[in-house]
Structure formats: C-alpha cells, structure tokens
C-alpha cells in the first residue's frame, strides 16, 4: 500500500507541474507581439499601394490617407496600464487549481476506488502463511467459511505473480474440490500437473478433479492417471477408493468389490473404516444378484533392512510363486524404487503364464528383489526377500534383508 500512495502523490505532483507550466507561459505577450507584427506588415503594404495609386493618378490626397493609416495603427495598440490592471497573477489561478486537483483526485478515489476493499485484500494476502499452515496441519478448530474464502483469495493473488508454484496450484485445487467448484479445481490441478507431471499427489488431485467432470473424455483420463498410480511406488487408499467408486457408478460391480477388498486388507479389521467397506461390498454384491468370491489379489507390505544399500536408479521387482517355491512366477510386477516401507498390490492383471491366473493359487509365496542394473537375468549383489507361505487374499509381510 505504501508504494501505491507514493505513486499517487507522484502523479498528482506531475499534474500540478504541468498546470504551473501552462499558467506561466507567455501566451498573451506572444499574441500581442504577433498582432503588432501583422499590423506593421499591413501598414507597409498599404503604403506601397498608396504610392502606386498616386503615381497612376488615382489618389490626390495621399498625405491625408497616410495620416489616417497611421492613426488606425496607433488605435490598435492596447494601453499597457490597462493590460496590467486586467491580467491575473499565475499564483492566483495555480493555488485553487492545485487544491481542486488534490481534493477531486483523492475524494473520487475514496468514494469510487474501493480503498477499504483494497486494504482488506492486502491484509488477507499477508495472512497466506498463517491460513495455509492452519489448513495443512489441521487445528482443533476447523477453518470457517470466511477463512476458506480468505485463503482462496490469498492463493489466487500469489499465483497471479508466481504462476510456477505447483504447490500453490495443488492447494487451490484441493480447496476447490472441497467446495465442489469443478471448474476451479480442474484448472488449478491441470496447472499443477503441467508443472509436476510425475508427482503422485498432483496426479491424484488432478484425477479427483477430472472425475467430477461430466465429460467422458475427462473421466477416461482420470482412470488412466489412477491406473498409473497403481503401478507407482505404493498404493494410496484414495486411489483405490476413487477407482472403486468409479467402477460402482459404471455398474462394474466386480471391479468395485475387488478394489474395496484390497482396501480392507490394507487397513485391517481394526480400522474404523473396515465395516463401512464391508457394507459397500455387500451393496455391490446385491446389485450383481450373486455372491462374489473375494480374495482375487495379493497386498504385499514391503520393508527394507537398515543394512541394505540401494542404488538410486534401481527398480523393485515383486513376484508371486506357487506354494511349492517354484522359481517360475505366476504373477510379477516392476516398480520404481521409491521409498520404504510401502505396499503393492498384484492381481490377475499381473499374471505371467498363459492359462494360469493368480486367482487360481491356493497357496503362494511372494518374493521381492532390488534390481540394480536393469537386467532381470543378473542378480549379483542384488538385495532380496521372501515371505512366509500365505493364501490368496492375505496381506503379506515381506522384508528385503538378504543379498545374492
């Protein structure tokens, strides 16, 4: 605000200076000088004409005419004392004009310029760190509607000047999602995704916004983003929840049951959400008109020994084998190394053998290996781990703590 008022004072000063320059100009004197020069030129021309007429015999009283011409020239010269009495001092006009400029400028701004709103806007923008911290950390008292509006305004202001702030766009998109503002949410998440296309949180937020759209192409793109997240570092419950809800809305009840079942295995029966997921599964089963055979996938919780040294460019390979320990996997998947501990889910889509699905196994063993060179045939120096015997539908615990 200080800069704003300084700039307005500067503009007013410029206006006053221009006015003073105009009042101090010698326009009147220049007009009189031009008039005198014009009268002199007219007088000389008329003398020349009278002389030519006298030579031609057209004029007999040449001297009388010259006297009349001189008198006319004298009558056209204004009296100096009269001019001095009627002329106004420049300061007499300048002072009231300056006062009028200042009063009209600031008076009209205070009335029509929304000065109070600008002040409130500046104060809200200054509270951005405080409001953001309250939203992200989650205080005992939830944010009021006015605080959410203030946070949105402050974010929009910041993003106007810092359009490459992906975190700001993500936060604005989440607020819009909470307010069911589809247009703002989609635009904000799209900007965040454009800046950070590989960030898992940004992908998930963009998928959430696209899921709210009524456009089939937007929804298909959201499904693509969610499916890519299933193959990333770990499975986020929100990804499975969105896929389950979308499948249920599209009346793909088997897929909805599969996703909800995986969520149950990931959170365990002690979680308060377990019963809610059970009711969702039962609702989908009722829609199908027949019972569903659950347990068609394997959720694997993977951790790494503190002694293991993992290259940054390595990859994680997870494979499911029959209970007899056969080296040939029935299903397998490859993931970026990411962080640990993490959870991955394998189902029939990861099956490796023609005619034999993961869901056909009665017992299984899960193996995980950190592939350091990108060649699955070489294992020298790679770290690996193996689970205990498990059944389809179990949540498998696995620790990578051995080295070839």
From TrEMBL:
<feature type="repeat" description="TPR">
    <location>
        <begin position="166"/>
        <end position="199"/>
    </location>
</feature>
<dbReference type="InterPro" id="IPR051263">
    <property type="entry name" value="C-type_cytochrome_biogenesis"/>
</dbReference>
<feature type="transmembrane region" description="Helical">
    <location>
        <begin position="6"/>
        <end position="25"/>
    </location>
</feature>
<dbReference type="GO" id="GO:0030313">
    <property type="term" value="C:cell envelope"/>
</dbReference>
<feature type="domain" description="Cytochrome c-type biogenesis protein H Ig-like">
    <location>
        <begin position="298"/>
        <end position="401"/>
    </location>
</feature>
<keyword id="KW-0677">Repeat</keyword>
<dbReference type="InterPro" id="IPR019734">
    <property type="entry name" value="TPR_rpt"/>
</dbReference>
<feature type="transmembrane region" description="Helical">
    <location>
        <begin position="88"/>
        <end position="109"/>
    </location>
</feature>
<dbReference type="GO" id="GO:0005886">
    <property type="term" value="C:plasma membrane"/>
</dbReference>
<dbReference type="InterPro" id="IPR056413">
    <property type="entry name" value="TPR_CcmH_CycH"/>
</dbReference>
<dbReference type="InterPro" id="IPR011990">
    <property type="entry name" value="TPR-like_helical_dom_sf"/>
</dbReference>
<keyword id="KW-0456">Lyase</keyword>
<dbReference type="Pfam" id="PF23914">
    <property type="entry name" value="TPR_CcmH_CycH"/>
</dbReference>
<dbReference type="InterPro" id="IPR017560">
    <property type="entry name" value="Cyt_c_biogenesis_CcmI"/>
</dbReference>
<dbReference type="GO" id="GO:0017004">
    <property type="term" value="P:cytochrome complex assembly"/>
</dbReference>
<dbReference type="GO" id="GO:0016829">
    <property type="term" value="F:lyase activity"/>
</dbReference>
<dbReference type="InterPro" id="IPR056412">
    <property type="entry name" value="Ig_CycH"/>
</dbReference>
<feature type="domain" description="Cytochrome c-type biogenesis protein H TPR">
    <location>
        <begin position="117"/>
        <end position="274"/>
    </location>
</feature>
<keyword id="KW-0812">Transmembrane</keyword>
<keyword id="KW-0472">Membrane</keyword>
<protein>
    <submittedName>
        <fullName>Cytochrome c heme lyase subunit CcmH</fullName>
    </submittedName>
</protein>
<keyword id="KW-1133">Transmembrane helix</keyword>
<dbReference type="Pfam" id="PF23892">
    <property type="entry name" value="Ig_CycH"/>
</dbReference>
<keyword id="KW-0802">TPR repeat</keyword>
<keyword id="KW-0201">Cytochrome c-type biogenesis</keyword>
């Amino acid at each position: 605000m200080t800069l704003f008022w300084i700039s307005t004072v500067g503009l007013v000063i410029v206006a006053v200076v221009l006015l003073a320059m105009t009042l101090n100009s010698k326009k009147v004197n220049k007009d009189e000088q031009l008039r005198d020069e014009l009268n002199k030129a007219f007088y000389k021309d008329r003398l020349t004409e009278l002389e030519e007429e006298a030579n031609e015999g057209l004029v007999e009283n040449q001297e009388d005419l010259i006297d009349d011409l001189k008198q006319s020239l004298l009558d056209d010269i204004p009296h100096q004392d009269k001019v001095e009495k009627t002329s106004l001092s420049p300061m007499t006009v300048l002072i009231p004009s300056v006062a009028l400029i200042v009063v009209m400028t600031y008076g009209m701004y205070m009335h029509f310029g929304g000065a109070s709103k600008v002040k409130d806007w500046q104060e809200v923008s200054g509270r951005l760190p405080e409001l953001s911290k309250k939203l992200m950390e989650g205080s005992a008292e939830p944010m009021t509607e006015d605080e959410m509006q203030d946070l949105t305004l402050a974010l929009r202001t910041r993003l106007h000047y810092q359009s490459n702030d992906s975190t700001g766009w993500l936060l604005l998109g989440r607020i819009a999602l909470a307010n069911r503002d589809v247009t703002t949410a989609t635009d904000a998440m799209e900007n965040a995704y454009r800046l950070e296309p590989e960030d898992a949180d940004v992908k998930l937020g963009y998928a959430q916004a696209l899921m709210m759209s009524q456009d089939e192409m937007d929804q298909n793109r959201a499904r693509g983003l969610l499916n890519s997240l299933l193959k990333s570092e770990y499975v986020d419950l929100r990804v499975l929840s969105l896929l389950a809800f979308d499948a249920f809305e599209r009346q793909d009840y088997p897929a909805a049951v599969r996703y909800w079942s995986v969520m149950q295995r990931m959170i365990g029966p002690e979680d308060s959400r377990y019963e809610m997921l059970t009711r969702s599964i039962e609702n989908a089963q009722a829609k199908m008109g027949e019972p569903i055979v659950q347990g068609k996938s394997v959720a694997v919780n993977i951790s790494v020994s503190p002694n293991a040294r993992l290259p940054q460019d390595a990859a994680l390979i997870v494979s499911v084998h029959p209970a007899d320990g056969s080296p040939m996997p029935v299903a397998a998947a490859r993931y970026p190394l990411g962080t640990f501990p993490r959870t991955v889910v394998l189902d029939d889509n990861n099956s490796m053998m023609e005619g034999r699905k993961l869901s056909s196994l009665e017992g299984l063993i899960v193996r995980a290996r950190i592939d350091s060179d990108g060649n699955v045939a070489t294992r020298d120096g790679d770290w690996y781990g193996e689970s205990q015997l498990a059944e389809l539908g179990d949540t498998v615990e696995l620790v990578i703590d051995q080295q070839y």
